[in-house]
Amino acid sequence: MTEPVNNETPVELRTATPSHFRRLHPLTPLLRGWAYLAGVIVIMGQNALRNPAPISIYLAFGFGFAVLATIAGAVSWWFTRYGFDGDALRIDSGVLMRRSRRVRMDRLQAVDVNRPLVGRLLGVAELRMEVAGGSKSEAPLKYLSLDDATRLRAELLARAAGIDAETPEAPERMVAEVPLRRLVWSTLLSGGFVLGVLLITAMLVALALVPSQARAGILAPMLPGLLAAGYALWTQLGRNFGFTLAESPDGYRIRKGLLDMQHQTVPPGRIQGVLIRQPLLWRARGWAEVHVDVAGYAGASAENATRTSTLLPVAPLAEAMEIVRQVLAGVDPSSVELHPAPQRSRWLRPIQWSRLAYGAGDKIVVVRDGRFTRRLTVVPHAKTQSVRVTQGPIQRRLRLATAYVDTTPGPVNAIIRHRPPEEAFQFVEDQAERARLARKTDIPEQWMVQHASRVSQGNTDGDVHKDASNE
Amino acid sequence: MTVASHDVEELFAPSGEKWQPVSRKLVTVRYIVLAMTLAIVTPLLAVGLWFVLDVWGIVVAVAVALVGVVWGGWLIPRIWRAWGYSERQEDLLVTHGVMFRKLTVVPYGRMQFVDVNSGPLDRKFGLATVQMHTASPASDARIPGLPAQEAARLRDRLSALGEAKAAGL
């Protein structure tokens, strides 16, 4: 890039919003007003409990607030407009404080169209753009009509790919589907659910044993059990309901959700790392899950990260590995030779030491660890952000060191634990060099233009002649 | 163990590289910080312990302060000596840490932005901290205790190199 990485150019106060810019869906103020109303009801409810007053006063207050919130929402809706301005998507908003943001298309990491339950009933959707470096989603456009959202997504992706903006949405090929039966079983076998059920059962047993006077005290500890089981049900079953993964020239498309539906699109070359996880209880059935790092996704809370980083919630290991192979552009992680950690690492990792291993192939680094939950972490050389070695006092005694391959934030953390120091340093040195070479041949940010006009697009590096043919 | 740890030192700061030390004034700054911390903590601790242990409380507090002084006096120069950075052709190396040794390799092309920080005490001694950020928050390329001029030079050089070698994510 010839200019510093900056996704939000400063506000341009004097440029008026171009006339072709569009507004959000007219129902937006109403949909957002709901949230205010709910808040008002909660506050007033608490008040009412403390000093009761005639119900009409509360009704009047509540109604007044709702009207005010809706009017405020309507004004803000009127002043919020979006549209393409040159190469970037520009969103102008604010009444007193005008705000104008630009989202650079070549930095676009993912586009999500989310449909919360209420939105689904009214036929509207929320469009989120993830841009690397943003600590949170770059201005979610909520709400748009579903048609508008779909059309805008197609346009965003076409522009990000560096092709004609009018190109219709590309066709897709189904890669994986998660049958309901498997999803239900995987939920029942998940650690959180089993733990919750165990807690509840233990409490029930205790309940039957103690005298009836003391029972009330035992009911309370059941709550965490119920919560754990419910949470597991919600995250695995509710969120990943009807999960499908499809591939298209735009990248990977993920659809999922029971009540709130999510549709994610991750363009090619945006996946920064892959984690294949195999929890203990799934192993009998040979299942695994796949998570990925996408820059921008993890910027929000950890909760959000797990919600958005799932590439495959549950699948037979062979299928998962096949998909990982596709995601990594044909590189098979199992073809990389793994070097186990030395035996003396058992002093620091008594249980999983013999599982600790890593390997570096032509294009990827593979790290294996985990005894009960098996993990295989894969980071392409081209996505290496930096490399580190650390050594603590105990490691120094044992002559061990730990190497890190840093990636963008997310569930994938390639930590090569407890290697002989010489090896760790050699690895770091080699990895820096491998990453440097790999960056030159990586997929360009505008993934469709790799054979045309690369110079003007300001792409990944200076070696314009070589790299189009290298890959 | 001395021979082995010497080898490891060599690994964390390979002698083939041109290692730049950070300013000696960093030691002074850290001493002042330590002295100020102890000056605040020790009386508080003494008062607190007075209620529990009577006169012995003060003795304990002074002992703790002495341990702090000795420990800091021993460790701070070592920490300073452990800091080092090296600007190579393609990447920046940063090494630091006494108990926990660390070596970070950050390619210039991965740089997102550079920070220069200088607190009031740092400014008094003409020092600044330069930090190079990548898209990964784990990349720990922070160099404290640089003379202001060197910090400015490094900042400019890093941003120039980052621009020249920039890669997409």
UniProtKB/TrEMBL annotation, chain B:
Record's keyword terms, sorted: Membrane, Transmembrane, Transmembrane helix
Domain called YdbS-like PH: residue spans: 80-158
Pfam families per the UniProt record, alphabetical: bPH_2
Annotated TM spans: 31-52, 58-76
Name of the protein: PH domain-containing protein
Lineage of origin: Bacteria, Bacillati, Actinomycetota, Actinomycetes, Jiangellales
